[in-house]
Specification:
Number of strands: 12
CATH class of the largest domain: Alpha Beta
CATH superfamily of the largest domain: HUPs
Shape: elongated
CATH architecture of the largest domain: 3-Layer(aba) Sandwich
Bound molecules: glutamic acid
Radius of gyration: 32 Å
Helix content: 40-55%
């Protein structure tokens, strides 16, 4: 049988990392089994659902590289289908009209509470299968006796006493079918074989199973995945830092790092940490989804991101870096080649945002010297060093201005002056980058190119002279 899974977000906000992980599990499971992955937007809560959220969710999924085979389907457009199912249940005597007023229900609730009982609908309207003249809700006739069993691939067997569950409203008196009912009708009519979702939905599952049974539909396999927690072991929320997928994109994380990190947060394959997309598809299974909640660890995620940056090809990283630099207002056509810039920074950048901070000095027209660095390294005595350095760099053939010839110029000068590399490299570094930390100084000069290097050195020479 073809495996069919789905992701069914409610479009009431951005895509949260927890939701993204649920989507990824469903997507991987479908891809692993060469099945289908379906996208369904659960927008029956018309007040809270927005197109903007739907678009944000789709963008996040595309960014993570999750493709879907069918959909997006929108629940709000499927009301007729839900109504047909409501009518069918009424006709079969498995649902009934309820005309109890909210006041009446509230009074009964209060009474039950005051008697120390669990409030539960008392079934007053049971048997009411003729449409009344007044607007009426429709309730599902839930069995009073027996048990409902969820055979959950993650949680194991979960048994609920039917007496615990009261007659759920499946269509409100305003005509809108309710959430649990729509989910069942959709999952059944869309042919889902597996429903993998957050364990915050486990409570809904016994009710949903009863509805499947009443409608005579095949029950899918369920897997309820534990929530993602923050470092303090409470449910991951904004208090712990960014939780939206797109916020991580903006912070310069790579989608492959996020995919890898989120999967590992709830699933394992021995102690392997790093998985390519293809490997995840090949190895993913439901058996190895963890029973206990994963704790979101920002340092580990960052480490993984740095790994993926190191592994990525320079051309691709250049494409990712350019919007970050443009957002800082740099005109990239005026700077050195982005690919060359990236190749000096990819080993040391944990995020693309960080890479763009490191890269700034390459693109600045005016280097701003860090105060402490210039105090320490741009002293008057450097004039006697910068001058001969300028002239020997000037002598290098334009086309050969690169690491090896620059190194030779340094070596000659150091020999002549009896200087150590660091005593020469640090002042030059401050002159070229503004600070004391940068990629290797010969690479920096090569990437900057002859003209920019000489211009910056000349400026530093003037600066040290003017300080006297
Ligand atoms: N719409 C639900 C949510 O966003 C998902 C329901 C489900 O997966 O069954 O939490």
């Amino acid at each position: 049988m073809e495996v069919r899974t789905r992701f069914a977000p409610s479009p009431t906000g951005y895509l949260h990392v927890g939701g993204a992980r649920t989507a990824i599990f469903n997507w991987l499971f479908a891809r692993h089994n060469k099945g289908k992955f379906i996208l369904r937007i659960e927008d029956t809560d018309q007040e809270r659902s927005t197109d903007e959220s739907t678009n944000a969710i789709l963008d996040s999924m595309r960014w993570l590289g999750m493709d879907w085979d069918e959909g997006p389907f929108f629940q709000a457009k499927r009301v007729d289908i839900y109504n047909e199912h409501v009518e069918r249940l009424i006709k079969d005597g498995k649902a009934y009209y309820c005309t109890c007023t909210p006041e009446e229900l509230e009074a009964k609730r209060q009474k039950a509470l005051s008697e120390g009982k669990k409030p539960k609908y008392d079934g007053k309207c049971r048997g009411n299968t003729r449409r009344p003249d007044v607007p009426a809700a429709v309730r599902f006739l839930s069995p009073d006796e027996g048990y409902t069993v969820v055979e959950d691939t993650v949680k194991g067997r979960v048994v609920i006493e039917n007496a615990e569950l009261d007659d759920l409203i499946i269509r409100r008196s305003d005509g809108w079918p309710t959430y649990n009912f729509c989910v069942v009708v959709d999952d059944a009519t869309m042919g889902m074989t597996h429903v993998i979702r957050g364990d915050d939905h486990l409570n809904n599952t016994p009710r949903q199973i009863q509805i499947y049974e009443a409608l005579g539909y095949q029950i899918p396999k369920f897997g309820h995945v534990p929530m993602i927690l923050g470092s303090d072991k409470t449910r991951l929320s904004k208090r712990h830092g960014a939780t939206s997928v797109m916020a991580y994109k903006e912070m310069g994380y790579l989608p492959e790092a996020m995919l890898n990190y989120l999967v590992r947060l709830g699933w394992s394959h021995g102690d392997q940490e790093i998985f390519s997309r293809e490997e995840l598809i090949e190895k993913f299974n439901l058996e190895n989804i963890g029973k206990s909640a994963g704790v979101f660890n920002p340092e580990k995620f960052l480490w993984l991101n740095a790994h993926y940056i190191k592994e990525s090809d320079t051309q691709k990283l250049s494409g990712l870096l350019s919007p970050f630099l443009e957002a800082k207002g740099f005109d990239l056509s005026k700077g050195p080649r982005l690919k060359d810039v990236v190749s000096t920074l990819k080993e040391r950048s944990k995020t693309i945002l960080e890479m763009s901070d490191f890269a700034e000095f390459y693109f600045r027209e005016e280097i701003i010297y860090d105060e402490k660095a210039s105090e320490k390294f741009l002293k008057l005595e450097m004039a006697a060093v910068f001058e001969p350095l300028l002239s020997s760099l000037q002598d290098i053939n334009d086309a050969e201005f690169g690491h090896d010839w620059i190194e030779k110029a340094f070596n000659d000068l150091m020999a002549e002056k009896g200087m150590k590399l660091k005593d020469l490299a640090q002042p030059v570094r401050v002159a070229l980058t503004g600070g004391t930390i940068s990629p290797g100084i010969f690479e920096v000069m090569e990437v900057l190119g002859k003209d920019r290097t000489l211009l910056r050195l000349r400026k530093a020479l003037n600066y040290v002279i003017s300080r006297s």
